Amino acid sequence: MPGPAGSAESLGFDPTTPNIARMYDYFLGGKDNFAADREAADQVMRLAPEVPLIARENRRFLGRVIRFLVDAGIRQFIDIGTGLPTQGHVHEILRSVAPDARVVYVDHDPVVIVHAQALLEGNGRTAVVGADLRNPGEILADPRLKGLIDLDQPVAFLLLAVLHFILDDDEVRRIMAELHKSVAPGSHLAISHAVAHTRPETRDGLTAVYREGPMKDVKRPDQRTRPEIESLLDGWDILEPGIVHLPSWRPEPTVALQDPDAIWLVGGAARKN
């Protein structure tokens, strides 16, 4: 039966409880998931059949933004709220474009941490940190991060599909300000974020699915407007083309653009000058 490496008992989690990271893996066509994850993901797709497409577009955006950051000279990456680091994740992309780059994966989910540690064992250019985005100081002070990342040199923070789970705008601004203060000039930030759209019934249905299983203790994602999302990045200089629907952010000329209305995530990159 498909599932993360090792038995559930040895990895220390309940495979009968859906997990967001493993559901996302399923949306991407991966095998690091269990029956409970697939059942919950199927419920999501019945409500919003476009979700796997959105997951793939988010992953394509990740690839484009990493290549952009490498071209900007970045060789240190801190991916916060990473999910399972499989299937074209940061270290795999960097392997072909900047093999000297270093990556720290950060997540507060113990399932993700255990699986990531097993997956990345022996990779001297990656580290895994168990911490919460709401505590940037704890993340940046972690000895595993400090052993790999030099905060006196430019770094890139990757915050993909995570900020919309923090509903308080002031808290997001605090986090962005702390990250900005803690890193050297020339550092970058990349985000993707759910954006308000015209299907509240879909949003409410998805909220019910997640709250019944993988997100019992998490409030619904906040669907801010694009100007509201931009306002969360005070202090960071947003780079062209701005915060836009994911397929429109520096698209590859050979790839047909998806309908923005079907991709209710926006994203972009910003720089500390």
Provide a concise account of the structure shown.
The protein is α/β, with parallel strands linked by helices and 273 residues long.
Distance between the termini: 50 Å
Counting DSSP H or I runs of 4 or more residues, the number of helices is 11
Helix amount, in percent? Answer: 25-40%
Which ranges are low-confidence, i.e. pLDDT below 50, for 5 or more consecutive residues?
5-10
Radius of gyration: 18 Å
What structural class is derived from the secondary structure elements? alpha/beta
The average pLDDT value, as a whole number, equals: 86
User: Which shape, going by the Cα principal axes?
Assistant: globular
Strand content: 5-15%
Strand count: 8
SSE sequence, one letter per element: HHHHEHEHEHHEHEHHEEE
